[in-house]
Amino acid sequence: MTALFPALRTEQDKPALRFGDRGLTYAELAAVAGSLALDLRARQCSRVAVWATPSLETSVAVLAALLAGVPAVPVNPKIGERELAHIVSDSAPSLVLAAPGAELPAGLAPLTRLDVDVTASAEAPLPEEPGDEAPAVIVYTSGTTGPPKGVVLPRRAIASTLDALEDAWQWSADDVLVHGLPLFHVHGLILGILGPLRRGGTVHHLGRFSTDAVAKELAGEATMMFGVPTMYHRIAVEVGDNPELASALRGARLLVSGSAALPVHDHQRITEATGQQVVERYGMSETLMNTSVRADGERRPGTVGVPLRGVELRLVDDAERPIAASDGETVGEIQVRGPNLFTEYLNRPDATAEAFTDDGWFRTGDMATRDPDGYVRIVGRKATDIIKSGGYKIGAGEIENALLEHPAVAEVAVTGEPDDDLGERIVAWVVADGEPPAQRELAEHVARLLTPHKRPRVVRYLDALPRNDMGKVMKRALDA
């Protein structure tokens, strides 16, 4: 029964959390989270929903639930009625934790509401924490079919991932992390809030991302930044003409991008302006973090680095036979095994069994190649990003990166659609930077950079790509 956050018991006046002009030291955080944890235990809660606004209250609520041994179910504040009804029915929380004054949707009305007080002054004893396999957080993931599934993450998975990242990123108590990520997802909540707290460091949450806010923080105390590609794209567009932003980024110890692939040309623009090379990592709700480019390793744009400490990773073919080749070319599905894995899909033993092989490997559904030195390069999702055209298996991500090197392409997504001759033809969905280029020009551009069979056969122009809250392009919406 190891404490997830030892600093709550040892640190006192050191800053722990800051949201805007509101913050808590470790002593204050221990008092308010400890008091709430004791309340949750006294109420004998089975699970608690957390109205996960980007706030001190959300952070305290989740931390208190972890201290109490009560699984927390973060709820996206932008959630729709149907999805909320499913999550409430499926997870059956005892109550909902929210910031005072927060307006909750009708779907949460049947639950007892408990407002989170972050001003409590009385020191409360921290409860004895449960074992490593106890459920800690239940995160709902949008599946390809059917309603979202509740991913049950045990305390063991959180601890092992955060400790593996300590090793990979040389993450220490001296680091101050800045980010503006949402707190209903593993990236913003587990890595971005619980990560610094486990290290005994500090996190400054922006509330809302802006390049000005990032520049201010990194020019001050912040040493690390977490972001998604949408954020880094905005930085890449601006940094060449913004000396203050460039200077602030130049002084950062580590810039980390995740949740989706960061286009190579955005990597290049940031490096040209700052000398910094952004680190990418690869994870999922079900696995937390699997791989990362190491802080002391080669920064290779377009890759997600090597397996983290304790994580086994292999590529398999369509028959689930391990692929021995590490040639940077052979595409296979990623399977992983290790202490970072989730326990189960809540109330879905069928889906849980389907997700694992008989010997415990988790089927990620992500397709990748592996370089001779072990670096992993994601090429897409098995269902949506692998295009089988003319007898070739083609990764959409490779074509997207090539198209983004064209000066008239601002954003792009690549999908496949049925073709009588090829099986599937490659379709590029392009947001143009200025005058849209001709389809032939883009096809020739890809054929020159890659190979002719990877060129788009169809180009469709859009004003914007559909994205979710984490900045990922929703390709199924394009196909629809």
Please explain how this structure is put together.
By secondary structure, the chain is of the alpha/beta class. Among the domains are: 173 residues, Rossmann fold; 58 residues; 94 residues, ANL, C-terminal domain (GMP Synthetase, Chain A, domain 3, 2-Layer Sandwich). Helices cover 30% and strands 27% of the residues. It is built from 14 helices and 25 strands. The strands form six sheets. The chain has a nine-stranded mixed β-sheet with strand order 2-1-10-9-11-12-13-14-15, sandwiched between helices. A four-stranded parallel β-sheet has the order 4-3-5-6, sandwiched between helices. A four-stranded antiparallel β-sheet has the order 16-17-19-20. A hairpin with a 3-residue loop joins strand 23 and strand 24. Helix 2 packs across helix 3 and helix 5 packs across helix 6. The mean pLDDT is 91. It comes from Prauserella muralis. One of its GO terms (biological process) is fatty acid metabolic process.
